[in-house]
Every structure is written in C-alpha cells, then in structure tokens.
TrEMBL record, chains A, B, C:
GO terms for biological process: 'de novo' pyrimidine nucleobase biosynthetic process; 'de novo' UMP biosynthetic process; amino acid metabolic process. InterPro entries: Asp/Orn_carbamoyltranf_P-bd, Asp/Orn_carbamoylTrfase, Asp/Orn_carbamoylTrfase_sf, Asp_carbamoyltransf, Asp_carbamoyltransf_Asp/Orn-bd. L-aspartate binds at residues 86, 168, 230. It catalyses: carbamoyl phosphate + L-aspartate = N-carbamoyl-L-aspartate + phosphate + H(+). Its EC number is 2.1.3.2. Residues 7-147 form the Aspartate/ornithine carbamoyltransferase carbamoyl-P binding domain. The gene is pyrB. Keywords: Pyrimidine biosynthesis, Transferase. GO terms for molecular function: amino acid binding; aspartate carbamoyltransferase activity. This is Aspartate carbamoyltransferase. Belongs to the aspartate/ornithine carbamoyltransferase superfamily. ATCase family. Carbamoyl phosphate binds at residues 56-57, 107, 135, 138, 269-270. Catalyzes the condensation of carbamoyl phosphate and aspartate to form carbamoyl aspartate and inorganic phosphate, the committed step in the de novo pyrimidine nucleotide biosynthesis pathway. Heterododecamer (2C3:3R2) of six catalytic PyrB chains organized as two trimers (C3), and six regulatory PyrI chains organized as three dimers (R2).
Amino acid sequence: MADQLYHVLGAKQFSRAELEELFAASKAMEEVVKAGGDRRHAGRIMTTLFFEASTRTRLSFESAISRLGGTVIGTENAAQFSSAIKGETLEDTIRIITGYSDIIVMRHTEIGAAKRAAAVSGVPVINAGDGAGEHPTQALLDAYTIQKEFGRIDGLKIAMVGDLAYGRTVHSLSYMLANFKDVMIYYISPENVRIPANVKRYMEEKGVRYEETTDLNAVAGSIDVLYQTRIQKERFPSPEEYDKAAGQYIVDTDLMDRMRKNTIVLHPLPRAGEIAEAVDSDPRAAYFRQAQNGLYIRMALIDKALGGK
Amino acid sequence: MADQLYHVLGAKQFSRAELEELFAASKAMEEVVKAGGDRRHAGRIMTTLFFEASTRTRLSFESAISRLGGTVIGTENAAQFSSAIKGETLEDTIRIITGYSDIIVMRHTEIGAAKRAAAVSGVPVINAGDGAGEHPTQALLDAYTIQKEFGRIDGLKIAMVGDLAYGRTVHSLSYMLANFKDVMIYYISPENVRIPANVKRYMEEKGVRYEETTDLNAVAGSIDVLYQTRIQKERFPSPEEYDKAAGQYIVDTDLMDRMRKNTIVLHPLPRAGEIAEAVDSDPRAAYFRQAQNGLYIRMALIDKALGGK
Amino acid sequence: MADQLYHVLGAKQFSRAELEELFAASKAMEEVVKAGGDRRHAGRIMTTLFFEASTRTRLSFESAISRLGGTVIGTENAAQFSSAIKGETLEDTIRIITGYSDIIVMRHTEIGAAKRAAAVSGVPVINAGDGAGEHPTQALLDAYTIQKEFGRIDGLKIAMVGDLAYGRTVHSLSYMLANFKDVMIYYISPENVRIPANVKRYMEEKGVRYEETTDLNAVAGSIDVLYQTRIQKERFPSPEEYDKAAGQYIVDTDLMDRMRKNTIVLHPLPRAGEIAEAVDSDPRAAYFRQAQNGLYIRMALIDKALGGK
C-alpha cells in the first residue's frame, strides 16, 4: 500500500519537473490564502508527530492544513510521548497512528526516521526534519523563494554562508539546486565547518559548479543570493576562535552596501546575531518572505499527498 | 498596518462606551453558545502562543474561537518553544507566526511583551497575561460579571481582598472600574502587600473614591462585591506571619452570614484555601459564573478583532 | 444535572445489552470512517484533559471526535497544568472546564478521579484511565475485538498472560467478559504478579470459570484468545528473576506454531519484547486491528454521550 502513497522524505526525491509543478501549486496556494482559505480537505485529519520541539515548523504545517479546511491532532513533545518512554519502536507507533489520520507530519531526532515511518505507514508521511538528516520542506521553501524572487533559478549565483558542515538546510538545498542549469554555488565557511565531501561529490556528479572559500567579502559583490545560516559556538575549540569566525560572516548594512541592488538575503531562521536587525527594512532582506513561503509550499505538498482538490 | 488592527493589550485602553458595547456583545454570545455555537468565523485560525502555561485561560480562548466556527493552532509551553531556546527575539517569532493565522492570543512572562508583539504583528494580538503586567481579558470578565449580576456598575461598593501588591488582576480591574460613576473601592490587605501607589494615583486622577484597610470584617456588611484573591506564602517573612495574615481573609460561611443578601463573592481562580468549599452552594458565590463569563467576553473580543459576523 | 449525562467511568457499568448496542454502533462507525467521516457533531467541542501523558489514547479520542465533525481543545501534560500546580482541586478545575466544551475526556494519575470529575461536571466525562484504577475504553475495545474476530464472546477460552497484578487492562476486561456466557479464563502469570483476589471474587460471584497457572505452554493449544501484556522489571526482586519470568511468556513463532489456526493474539500495546516482531505477519496477530478498533469504540461512545446523530 505504502508504494502508492506520496511521501515527502528527502530533497533528492524531487525532479526538476516535480519542483516546477510544486512551485506552480504553491503559487496557487497564495491565492487560496488571500481568499481566506478553502474547505477542500474538510474532514481530513493531519497528525503532527513531533518527537522534538519545532514550534515554527509545526505551526506552519498546522496552518497549512487548516487553510485547506482540514483538522489537526498531534503531540508537540517527544518527552511526553509515553510510548517512546515505554520503549515502543517507531514502527509500532506509526502502525497505530496510521489508523487515526489521513496524513502524518513527523519530526524526529534520528536520521532516517521518516523513511522508517513511511515504510510501515498506511498514509502519506511528510518529513519535518529527522535529526542531522533531511528537512526537505525547508529546502523546498528555500528553492521556491529563489524562484519567486527572480522568476528563475537557472543561471543564478548562490552563496551559502556559515556552518556548512552541520547545517542540514544547506545540504538539502544544494541537492535541490542540482536540478537547475548553470547554477554557481559559493560555499563560504570557517575552515572547521566546511561543506562535507559527500555533498561536493553529489554536486560534481550532477555537474554543478561550486567554489569553496572563507572570504565572504570577495564574493559578496557578484552573487544573486546570500543564504545565511547560524554558526554554533560549540563547534569551535575556544570562544575566541568562535568570535573570530562568526564575526566574519555577519550580514549588516555595510555588507548590504557592497552587494548588488537585486541580491537577496535568505536565512532559514531563527537567527541569533548573524543578520543585523538594521537589515530588515532593506527590500533585499527576503527572509521573512521566505518563512511565509513555507506555508504555501506545505499547503501544496499536503494537497498533493491528500489527492488534490 | 498594525494601527488599524484591534489589539487587546491593557485594561486602560477601554472607554466606558467600549465596555458597554463589549458587555452587550458578550451577552449576545451567551445566546450563541446556548444555541450550540455558530460558524461565523469558519476558516479563521487563532494561534495561541503561551510562553507560560495557563491552561484555564488558554482553553477559554480556544473554546471561544471554536464556538464561532474557527480553528486553533498553538503551543502550550514556552519551554518547548525551540526558537525561544535558540535565542530568537519575540519580534522575530511574531513576524513569522503572523503569516500563519488571523489572530494571536499570547501569554508571556515579561511585562510589555504583548505590546511588543502587537507592534510587529500583521494580525490582531490579544494579551492573555504578560508577567506582572496586564491581564485585560480577566479584568473584562470581572467587570462584565459585576455588570451582569447587578445590572450596573455605577454606584457599587467593591472590596478587593488579599494580595493587592502583586495580584495584577486587582490593578487591571481598578483601572476598568474607573470608567464608572460613584464606585467606592475598599482595598483590604495585610500591611506588606498593600495596593501600589501608582494604582492609587490613577484612581485619584480619575476621581474614584477608595479606602485602604486591613479589616475585612469592618467592611463586609456594607459592600456589594467582595473580590477575593490569593495571598502567596513567599511574600511573607515567616510562615507564622503568613498564616496570621491569610487567616484573616478567608471567606467562609461565618463571613457570608455577616454580608448582605445580595453581596456577591468573586475570585479570579484558582483558589487555594481562601474561599471555603462550604460557600460554593450559596447563591451569592458568583466565582464559577464569573469563570463562565470569560468565555463570552473572549468570544466578543475575538469577534470584534476578526471584524464581526 | 449530572445524573442524566452519559459518563463512561468503569468497566462494570456496562450490561450485556449495552455492550451489544455499543458493538453494533462501533461497527457502524467503521463504515463512517471508510466513507471519510461525517459532520454529525460539527460545532461540538471535546476537552482532552490529560494529567498524565498517553499520546496513543489521546490521539485516538481526538481522531474519533474529528471523524464526527467535532473540535478538540485540550492539554497534553499535567506538569503544565498551572492550576494543578497552584493547588486547585480537581473538582474546581472541572467546574470551570465544564463550561468550555460538550464532553470531557480525562486521564488522571489517581484512582477514582474520573468519578470525582463526573460528580461535578455539567457535561459527559469519559475516563481515559485513572491511575491504577480503570481504563474502560481499553476494555471495551478489547471485548469488541474479540466479538468482531469470532462473531461472539460466549463460549470462548481466553488466556490473559503476564503481569496480572498491576495491569489494569486485564482487570477491566475480566469484569466486562463476566457479562457473557460460558467464558473460560486462564490467568497465566509469574507467582509474584498473580491476578488479585478481588478480581477472582468478582468472577466467582458472576459465575465465570477461571484457572490460574504459571504455564502458558500447557494451555496455548486449547485457547481462542491469547491476551498478552507487559511484565515490568521493577516488580521483580532481581534482574535474573525478571528475565526468567518474562522469558517464559514471550509470544514468538514457536508458540504460534503450537496454537490453533484461529487463536488470536491481542495486546493493549505498547509492547516491549513480549511479542516477537516475526509474529506480526501472522494473520492471527490481531493487536494492530485491536488498536484500530479503539477508534470505532471511542466514536460510538462519544456519539452516544453527545446524543447521537
């Protein structure tokens, strides 16, 4: 049964054609929201199964199904999931939950958890993040935002900045961008948190051009997209080295002044101090628009998984 | 955009005319509930954003939007709010959440949090308590209960009893009562938790008569409303002094016997031991009716914020 | 008022006629779910008041009301229930909550909590487990599963296996089975966790035949139903004794081979290691069907409590 279901498990599952279809569907969802939502999925139930708190992502999914008339049941904290405490396997949990709803949105702490869930689920599973693994709906909303802001992804120069070793969003986004033509990626990070070899290998296999550097300033003036991420203190041997590294990559008005007129700034959010608040009023600051796009992407995914209108 | 929205932030924002309009709307909501609710806000989404647990208040708001056909998304615990953990500002959180729903009900631990939220929100914000600050919907339901029980507020004698220093409900209720004529307020408390100077000053500016005393018995026979509150042990230098102070203000059948036939007893609830259970069966015990009125007031506020029927 | 309400508090409240009516209603609910649910209780609100986490049970109830068009408000964790923290009695909590919804589903840590709630509630209360007390909806779904799998309960031989002292589900199920004719029960457990005297006394009063034994193998070949439960380590004086006891009662393919062709295996779930995963693919493994039946039973109960279609 599971084979015929539309699961969303990882960024690599999407072909260019599928992405374009999804972007068009997301655009249509913007109109649905503007019109106050519709009732196309009235009576359908979504289970949000969050083994790890991620309020922003959960609320975005819950808003998405609600805007389409559906209902939510769920749990927002793994620590309270009694079955997990009692030692039940994820598979058993899913075998039971699958009978309660029409779609499952799952966040988990372990890599591969979403795939394991999908393997035994009788309803579609959407991966809302599985540990250090994937977070495909984030990558989709990132790509959709670029598409929307420029009208295309082909031919763009995209800088990913910050912790490229542990930040799963830049990995998933890289995989997704590999579907497009003539994309150039700049991986800009401190030496100790460089983009992993397996991501680079994938990009090479797909023929995507990329460059690695530690120098954001050298690149800032020639890019279309600056994708900023957080750098976590605990990755560095000392606070001093962290401060030195993190300080290099702050997006402030000085940096904005050095960038082109139509270069946009993205960030998966939440931000700590890596984008100055003074940048918010710059029309090139696209990160709040980006967050909003997450709603439309998730509506489109849910709609597809539930079989459309 | 935010200027045109109807936010509910503090007790002082309400004029007498607005209160009367709101009381009439709340009365109408009672009829809506009796008829099993209606669907006037079907498709509208409320986000309940509780950075501090307050189940009673949250459920009251969730019931209110549900009775009007709307939907709830939300989080019931700040400790689980991952973005707060990761150091995101409240403003950033609101900037994102604002795109997910049509109204935000927020509880926070910090004074002024609701105002900060309203300043960046694209949808109406209702303050469900911000730390030691305000809790305007509690004050509204308190005032509405008095209006409903007596048919008026003008000319009533109202005693507020207990911890008047730290209990924010008595402050907000005082501000609200200042809209009415010939109200007489008795502030009755132990010496160490007297009503603050700024509240007294406000009442003086508004021309409201008040008296401060430690002696509930002296006043009990001549009041219309006894508004009882909790006294917290930790405010007192020793358990003995607490017991002495708290013991003076217990509402029991003896006290009820000394009060007039139509004097009502209110309490924001939960109560600990400051109203004896034996009092519950007395028709003058209005505190459960008061709690119920919270539903109607919140329905009226939500309805107004969402633009009415 | 409470007397006229349909509360679900304990297994003993159900007569045979009521059980048969409920089984028929549950069967009808299967058809409702297959048809995608209906809207018969649109506008009705269920409060799920869980003073103890039990995600599976809570989601099952929330799915049930959702499939009938109703709405859920609730709290999933007692530790966050501010009123409980502040020392409010359960009765006061219910007196307030009762005004927010049309039905209350409650899980609590204390025996008798559901009865106390029902005594002051203005709306029906369904007991979703009260400590070591009752869990009547589990017993109902257990009995319904047996009825459904065999077309009858009369005349069946049912083995209850595992921790029969502390496992409340086997107590409640025993009480319920006492309504049927010619049932034979085998209580199979380690010596230190035998079925309590009060359960045996009840069965004797009702004229139900039973046997106690420690030997599952001796009985396995002649039973219709094997109701497996968990054995908890902390009940045993040493890990060695636990391993010895628990190891005797594992349902694995060897045991399945020794059982008859139509003997079914039930389990209230979650399971730890007491049923091998290799058994899952055996058609006699009925425990996931059993969990699914919980949805239909709860829909039927909610429907009855809310006054039907």
